[in-house]
């Protein structure tokens, strides 16, 4: 089989406030339906966060993940499920001079952060491989926590998607791959444009790609206006790609995206214009060596 390009759709994320877009999926039903629509539009993988159904705030409640995953699986749509493990690592002081982690901070143990992976057994789970200033808050991922989360993913059989936002993240991940904590061939997601990580430029993408372990699978994405230029750049460099309302709310300049499916359709069109063919879910499993766990 000629290797094809895997397109992931990141459905809702945890940062964008609902007031920015009335169509942002919030409830488990909305997130699941958006994932199903994205799969029908050409996404091989759906990347899933959950939110409080009443407030739209980010959540890590296992029951919300279960409802989303159950709805997708019960629909019968053949799509690879990718659950985030990024939540539970956010530090925001209550006040600028506060020395506590109250307010909107959510800092949890590896076991709690992996509970929804244990229960739902997704084929992929994302691990944010480092700590950084992330917009106005800080994400905290210690090497020991990441090691324990990676070991849990290995025991379950869920392939880690290693999200790297800066060069030090890649150094740490490469060490854990070399030490066998993460099985090869690893899967990397090069995340560009997030304040205050790497800028979304071809040079930064190529630098990160050129320092991956030999034989690694990789994808990359940009955010906002950079979503589709970075999609094209990743595809041309031999990587896989990502779109979705987690990263960008616009189909074109000044034109809000009506849905995740619309972003996927545009992404598929860009790939085909470049002579690339999007992979089906079955082809994505073959490329990445995934096994359905449920």
Kindly describe this structure.
Helix 1 (28-41) packs parallel to helix 2 and helix 1 packs parallel to helix 9 (260-273). A hairpin with a 2-residue loop joins strand 15 (250-252) and strand 16. The protein contains ten helices and 16 strands. It has a single domain (7-288), classed as Aldolase class I (TIM Barrel, Alpha-Beta Barrel), CATH 3.20.20. It has helices at 28-41, 62-75, 110-113, 115-120, 143-156, 167-178, 202-210, 227-236, 260-273, 281-288, and strands at 7-10, 45-48, 50-51, 58-59, 80-84, 89-91, 106-107, 124-128, 132-134, 137-139, 159-164, 187-191, 217-221, 240-243, 250-252, 255-256. The strands form four sheets. Strands 1-2-5-8-11-12-13-14 form an eight-stranded parallel beta barrel, surrounded by seven helices. Strands 7-6-10-9 form a four-stranded antiparallel sheet, with no helix packed on it. The mean pLDDT is 94. It is an alpha/beta fold and 294 residues long. Helix content is 36%, strand content 20%.
Question: How does the SSE layout of this entry go?
Answer:
Blueprint: E1 7-10, H1 28-41, E2 45-48, E3 50-51, E4 58-59, H2 62-75, E5 80-84, E6 89-91, E7 106-107, H3 110-113, H4 115-120, E8 124-128, E9 132-134, E10 137-139, H5 143-156, E11 159-164, H6 167-178, E12 187-191, H7 202-210, E13 217-221, H8 227-236, E14 240-243, E15 250-252, E16 255-256, H9 260-273, H10 281-288
Parallel strand pairs: 1-2, 1-14, 2-5, 5-8, 8-11, 11-12, 12-13, 13-14
Antiparallel strand pairs: 3-4, 6-7, 6-10, 9-10, 15-16
Helix pairs in contact: 1-2, 1-9
